[in-house]
Amino acid sequence: MKRSRYVLFSLSVFLMALSSVRAQTIQLSLSSEAGREYVLYFYHGQKTDSVLGGRIDAKGEAVLQIPQSYSGYKGAGTLAFKGGKGGGIEMIINNENFSLSANPQDGVSFKNSVENNYLINFFSGRTSPVSGNGLYASRYLKLMQYNEELKQKRTPVYQLRSYLRKELDVEALYTSAMWNDVISGTFELYSNKKDFGIDMTEVLKRTRDKAVFDALSDDLITICFQFGWEAAQDTIVSYLINSNRIKHPSGKVYAAFEQHKVRPGFKAPHLDVDGKKIAPKNVLLVFHETGCENCEIQMQELVKHYAEIKKKGYEIITVSSDLDEHIFESSSAPFPWKTKICDYEGFDGVNFKTYGIVGTPTMYLIDKDGVVKERSARLVDLNLLSVNK
Per the domain annotation, does 15 fall within a domain? Predict the structure, then answer.
């Protein structure tokens, strides 16, 4: 008797475990899509996850069984059809088991989904947004409104910045499919890029979820590198280092942490030149790459103003990320300065790592004491040429 009870108990545990392998079920009834392949997408910041795929049967029906690994997902989902002309069917995913149907007369409809029906009622004018109702859909609508205001540019800039700094729901934004639009949409709110760094630091302080915090940190650093926003980068990286919330930085975050050690007012690290260490002094140090359009422009500027730079007491040292010796030798031959470094290791080269370089061109103006005076992506932005006076 005891044995049979044990077997029944074990069987029930096994069945419960088996049933929990999938987190959520969505029933599809889409006659217009019969026989077509589909893919369901979820969103995490800049990343788009292909959660599952399959084919709608001949009756236009299918069952989507979302993997258990996505059981905690709250956010936007897109059901896309291969070979389709439209953008697919948008929906909210929040651990609801629901049915989705669509037809030409009634459009898309949901059954047993409070989240998606909330959105449908809003867009059809049958309800107004309600705060504090616990629905992801409510948070999603606020993000949509803010995103639209960024695009329309009708709301005063100070209000948009205030909302960004104090209220933007970055955790909801992370899974909304609007991450790139909203983050990039904030760029034009700031003429002073240091203010961008200050406000984004406040957003980081409010961000509790580790994955969201890490993604936002990485994207902000990428933006600063890409556009050469030195002041914003220094502000953001200072906070990240002091907060100690990123225990093991990697990639661009690691590079930014290293580069932060080489900011203006700090001693420039030694350079590795053919295995020898040299301390750069009275040097304009330039990291570049052959074929990089901005690099090519800046290298031409350096050649053009080389005599003036020498007259000011500075020598140019260039460090290339080229991987091919022939390309490096050919491209650097016209440069009139003596020291042209390349170890053919690309961005993994020792000097690139020492200085935390993740984007080229990057320039450092180093004084007679070996202290970094300025850092920039463009020669004209350094207080070095007479045309800047």
Answer: no
The SS3 call for residue 75 is strand
Gap between the Cα atoms of 346 and 139, Å rounded: 44
Structure tokens at 121: 């009622």
Contact present, 98 and 111 (Cβ < 8 Å): yes
CATH number for the domain harbouring residue 313: 3.40.30.10
Q: Spell out, as residue ranges, where the chain has pLDDT lower than 50.
A: 1-21
d(CA 145, CA 255): 35
Query: What domain count does the chain have?
Result: 3
Contact 261, 349 (CB under 8 A): no
CA distance 113 to 123: 16
Per-chain mean pLDDT for the chain: 90
Q: DSSP readout, 171-202?
A: HHHHTTT-HHHHHHHTGGG-SSHHHHHHHHHH
pTM, whole model, 2 decimals?
A: 0.77
